[in-house]
Each structure stands twice: as C-alpha cells, then as structure tokens.
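INSTRUCTION: Work out how this chain folds

Fields: amino acid sequence; protein backbone structure tokens

Chain under study, with its fold:
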Amino acid sequence: MDTKKIKFTVFGLVQGVGFRYFVARNASLLGIRGYVRNEYDGSVTGVAIGAVGSVEKLKQLLQAGPSRAHVDKVLFEDYIGDENFATFEIR
C-alpha cells in the first residue's frame, strides 16, 4: 500500500467551531495517523499519514470543514518528518 504524508495549515474561522474534532474523527475513520492542533495565529495545523486515497479524501474534508467553520484557504506540503504516529491525536 502506498503511503502519503502531508502537513496541512487551515486558515479562516477554524478555532472554536469543533474543527480539530472534525479532523480527528474523520482521520480516524479513514485510518489516518498524525495530529491536529490550534496555532496562535488562529490557524489549525496538522500532519496526516495514511493510504493515498484516504489522505486525498481528508484533504477534501479539510477544505470544507465542519458546518460552523469557514475555511478561507488550506496549504498542503509533503511531511518530511520521521515521526510515524500510532494514532491520530488532538494536540
């Protein structure tokens, strides 16, 4: 199975609206490992590691967000860290 590793940064109204829980729930359902966390600038960042199709689906979900969120933009880059993560966690 091909594995994809990405880092993401989500901008917009994404804190205080359940965004991290939305990401964690969907990542776990998709079998993705990694984390999501709030940043001081109001963005949400994280790492997702999993099957290519699952990571692509999560990327679509990140761009939509939960109903109370308003996503302005999402930046994706390859994750080059060596941490492999056992689960998906909220930090």
